[in-house]
Amino acid sequence: MLNLRPLLFILGIFLSTLTVFMFIPLIFALFYGEETVGAFMISSLVTGTTASACIHQGRSRNLNLNIRDMFLLTSLTWLIVSFFAAMPFTLYHGINYTDAFFETMSGITTTGSTVLSGLDTMDHSILIWRSLLQWMGGIGFIVMAVAVLPFLNVGGMRLFRTESSDWSDKAIPRTQDMAKHLFYIYILLTILCGVAYHLSGMSWFQAINHAMTTLSTGGYSTSDSSMAAFSNQAHWVGVVFMAAGGLPLLMFVNCIQQRSLWVWNDAQVKGFILFITTVSIGLAFWLWLGHEMTPLDALRLASFNVVSVVTTTGYGLTDYTAWGALANIAFLFLMFAGSCSGSTSGGIKIFRFQIAGAIMREQLKQQFHPSGVFKERYNNRIISDDIVRSLVTFILLFMMVIVVLSIILVLTGLDPVTSFTGAITAVTNVGPGLGSTIGPAGNFSTLPDVAKWALAIGMLLGRLEILTVAVLFHPQFWKY
Description:
With 480 residues, this protein is mainly α. The protein is built from 18 helices and 2 strands. Strand 1 and strand 2 form a beta hairpin. InterPro entries: Cat_transpt (IPR003445), TrkH (IPR004772).
């Protein structure tokens, strides 16, 4: 049976945390005398009351969760938190609930797709709330990716199982300690990013907002022009800290605790850095040859856009769809890549491509030596059949969701390019798609409501690695 009382209690804790964060934009609204004061007061009151009721009803001496509880809790948390976090947008003038939920789900899943325009003159409280949603979603996913998903063996992530991934009574203190250290590093990197942005010419308000959305690889900006509104120095700051957001945060913790740089010996970290460096230099060379710009400008534009897409941040700097056919094809495939496991980014993730390559090598050896027994390793761990099955299932479901979502979007009247790239950008949590409507120079405001709800579901599926949600629809899940 499902343990409903512990589920209610934990959901109440999450909603309590959300209530506390709602006071931050409320303070901004009061300070600047904005009309959103009432919106945040009502939202915090409703969310806080619901949180108290959940905690009261769910309080129990036994808070142990089984694997079914963990699957359900993971999905419910993102869904219910998004439902309440959308309230300030709903109460804000001119935004219906469909747009409010879309904007919120995009924020919490750190996708970065937006339906809002006029950001340059928008209330400070709304802008800071958008950034906070992405910042909260980023650290939430990191903890889930390190402690929960390896435990549930989602998409081959058991390779990254640690002591914190064991949800026994003895492991709970270790999990709490791990979460605390991750949170401290996350705050430290955010502060460093904010200071660097301010030194590059941003105001403190702009720097704080962009620091939160850069580290979370979310991509929300305070300007309709996104990062194009800021200096070249700010672009390089973005490249560095977006890349940092694409690295496993737990490895920053280990480097500080062990006072070593062993993180750079990790296979996925080396693969990620080599990948973004190679693609950035290649596209920079393409820009330099085919467009009138200096080598440094070509490298800046290429690096920023490549890192933004690969880390699924989705900041806009320039319309890279105007760079020619090669760039269009390159960015289409870059949307799938993702960064490292245990980072704030979405996508398929680098380690899955590396494991797929190892499996291919193993299969080729088997062709030459049919009787041989070959076991490939990844980061000195044997790639077991269990991990292979989990990874193959994840990839198939990933592609199936994109296909189904693309069909739904086409049926709403959208063109094939918008439908296909919209589905990809939602499931991979990238943000912008391709084409004139949802490309780097557009947004999602003109899409039909049905398309927005479908994309919001796609964002949730992609953020939770699909299998976590898909298992809830299997009849076997509800039988016991």
